[in-house]
């Protein structure tokens, strides 16, 4: 991948990224404490399959005010949702800098990146598709689960409202295809967030273009089988 700068943003890319591009563009968001360069293997597979690829540097990672101890529990609790919200908020400005059509963008996110991609997708009606891997489309529920896991006090009404402002649950704007992948033994991001979002999409919205695949015995990993299923979904969903 090649590292680039556009405006205030830094990103990695493969393929042609401009308004003259006739390929679909896959935008990948990595997980907490990861890096844009860590997506190189998936990016290479996507490029070989005929997609252009963008991997943004995420706030508080890489060269964007990188945190010294991202896996310190207090640091994670302070910055996890702030990182997600900031990334959702800056998406429009980031894409506008390229001059590309949102209709050509497929969002792919892993772990925290799944939250980010899903949060963007919920606000953007023109995006071509979403793949959320080991993340969640139910922000409030997931934070309740995180707090139980950490034996923390419940969300205040004010904190809950902040998350509701970005929560994809009950507000997904795009009717494009959705892929949800999750290990059933995930000890980091509980699968219940994905299940809850899937139930909302299929039972309430009556969506028929949502795929939810659960991987038996898989913890918080982006496995090769998941990559293969992502590639197959892209091919079958018109990506």
What would you note in describing this structure?
There is one protein chain. It contains 7 helices and 8 strands, in the order βββαβαβαβααβαβα. With 239 residues, the chain is α/β, with parallel strands linked by helices. It has one domain: Alpha/Beta hydrolase fold, catalytic domain (Rossmann fold, 3-Layer(aba) Sandwich). It has an 8-stranded mixed β-sheet with strand order 1-2-4-3-5-6-7-8, with helices on both faces. It is globular and about 50 Å long.
Topology, pairings included?
Elements: E1 2-6, E2 9-14, E3 25-29, H1 40-48, E4 52-56, H2 73-98, E5 105-110, H3 112-121, E6 129-133, H4 139-149, H5 157-164, E7 178-183, H6 192-204, E8 210-215, H7 224-236
Parallel strand pairs: 3-4, 3-5, 5-6, 6-7, 7-8
Antiparallel strand pairs: 1-2, 2-4
Helix pairs in contact: 2-3
């Amino acid at each position: 991948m090649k590292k680039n700068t556009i405006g205030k943003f830094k990103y990695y890319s493969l393929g042609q990224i401009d308004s003259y591009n006739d390929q679909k563009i896959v935008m990948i968001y990595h997980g907490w404490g990861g890096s844009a360069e860590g997506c190189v293997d998936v990016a290479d597979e996507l490029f070989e399959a005929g997609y252009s690829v963008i991997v943004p540097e995420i706030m508080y990672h890489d060269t964007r005010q990188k945190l010294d101890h991202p896996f310190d529990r207090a640091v994670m609790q302070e910055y996890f949702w702030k990182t997600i919200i900031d990334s959702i908020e800056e998406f429009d400005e980031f894409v506008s800098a390229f001059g590309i059509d949102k209709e050509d963008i497929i969002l792919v996110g892993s772990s925290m990146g799944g939250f980010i991609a899903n949060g963007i997708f919920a606000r953007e009606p023109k995006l071509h598709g979403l793949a959320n891997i080991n993340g969640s489309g139910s922000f409030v529920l997931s934070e309740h689960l995180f707090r139980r896991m950490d034996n923390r006090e419940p969300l205040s009404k004010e904190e809950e409202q902040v998350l509701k402002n970005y929560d994809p649950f009950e507000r997904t704007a795009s009717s494009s295809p959705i892929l949800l992948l999750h290990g059933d033994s995930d000890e980091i991001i509980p699968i219940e967030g994905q299940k809850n979002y899937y139930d909302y999409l299929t039972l309430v919205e009556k969506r028929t273009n949502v795929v939810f695949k659960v991987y038996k015995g898989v913890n918080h990993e982006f496995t090769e089988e998941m990559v293969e299923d992502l590639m197959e979904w892209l091919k079958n969903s018109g990506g």
